[in-house]
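Reviewers of the previous submission asked for a worked example of the structure-prediction workflow described in the proposal, so we include one complete record here. The input consisted solely of the amino acid sequence. No template or homolog information was supplied to the procedure at any stage.
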Amino acid sequence: QVQLVESGGGLVQPGGSLRLSCAASGSIFRGNVMSWYRQAPGKQRELVATITSGGSTNYADSVKGRFTISRTNVKNTVYLQMNSLTSEDTAVYYCNARGPSGNWGQGTQVTVSS
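From that input alone, the workflow returned the following structure tokens.
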């Protein structure tokens, strides 16, 4: 049973933008904290951004001012708008519901390269 489905990854040049989407089943979306994590090759998975059901957000220092997390309760979808991308942002990005012990998507690859 697939509950979190990410999309929107791809190859982008440095300085470019991408928007990731994560469609969630209603049962795990409503009322829960939604997050984006990422894992670069050879590195541990790290928290990128979090949004509560009320819309409060939190970001990793490395993405503050460049990334924006948002959610729409009508579509049970969470987004990650990524601007001013650099090679350091290259990673597999994962959608998460309800924290590290909760639900995970399959991941979507983001590659920033010229």
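The longest strand covers residues 18-24. We consider this example representative of the routine output the project will generate in years two and three.
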